[in-house]
Known about the structure:
This protein is of the alpha+beta class. It folds into 3 domains: about 1-60; about 65-110 and about 210-245, no CATH class; about 115-205, Chitinase A, domain 3. The protein is built from 9 helices and 8 strands. The chain has helices spanning about 15-25, 30, 35-60, 65-90, 95-105, 125-135, 145-150, 170-180, 210-245; strands at about 5-10, 10-15, 110, 115-125, 160-165, 185-190, 195-205, 210. The strands form 3 sheets. The protein has a 4-stranded antiparallel beta sheet with strand order 5-4-7-6. The chain has a two-stranded antiparallel ribbon with strand order 1-2. Strands 3-8 form a two-stranded antiparallel ribbon. About 15% of the residues are buried. The mean pLDDT is about 95.
Amino acid sequence: MNNEVLAVVAGKEITNADLDAFLANLPAEQRQYASNSYFREQYLEQIIVLHVLEKMADELELDMTEDYKKMLESLVRDIKARMAMNEIMKDIEVTDVEAETVYKINPDNFSKPETVSAKHILVDDEDACNAILAEIQNGEKAFEDAAKECSTCPSGQQGGDLGEFGRGQMVKEFEDAAFAAEIGQIIGPVKTQFGFHLIKVEAKNEAETLPYEAVKEQIKKNLLQQKQQQVYTAKIAELKEKYVEMK
């Protein structure tokens, strides 16, 4: 199947294997379509276009021009530089012991602050806010329905849901009221620069230190980047000392 010839361009066969190799070099978000027959046909068309343009360039002897030589020189330089970079980085690794040590000596870096999950209704007028509160309290409307009908905040379309947030993410008056409220309690009107709010706290989450396993991979990623930067900086300084002469 891989040797199946899909097209012939100026005597050169393009096979399934050629198409697969082309697809393998696509960005990850495009490779997911590699098995789709429609997209394979589209990518085959790209390969064919590349080949016919190459033949045109051959006929025009563009590879004999100065532009070609400059572009080829630049391309070769880039390839060599990338390969040299890979050589510099190839032996750099982070061990589990290193990651766990970082976790143990920097516990504050892996703490999750207290948060609340809340819904709100925002209106411009305090009297209107009190009227909505009365309708909710006497059972005429559910909080979420009132948010959809009355709230001027875009969150109203989601029943007023603001999701989970910590301190410093909301204006102070709103934050203070939300963190002080009991779960399920509807409080307000709370006045802020945006208007008047009714707030319903859905959940409260205490501050906690995230477990090592939850942050292990991120620690290793950060450490690897730090090591790579250190090695890169040192190597570039060494190479400059060896090869560069400033004028």
